[in-house]
Amino acid sequence: MTRINLLPWREMRRAEQRRQFTSTMLGAVVVMVGVIVLVHINLSGQIGAQESRNSYLDQQIALVDKEIAEIKGLEQEKEKLLARMNVIQELQSRRPQIVRLFDDIPRLLPDGAYLSSIEQSGQQILMQGLAQSNSRVSSLMRNVDSSDWLQIPKLDVIENTGDKESGRSFRLRATQVQLVKTDEEDA
Question: Which residue from 52, 72, 98, 169 has the highest number of Cβ atoms inside 10 Å of its Cβ?
Answer without folding.
Answer: 169
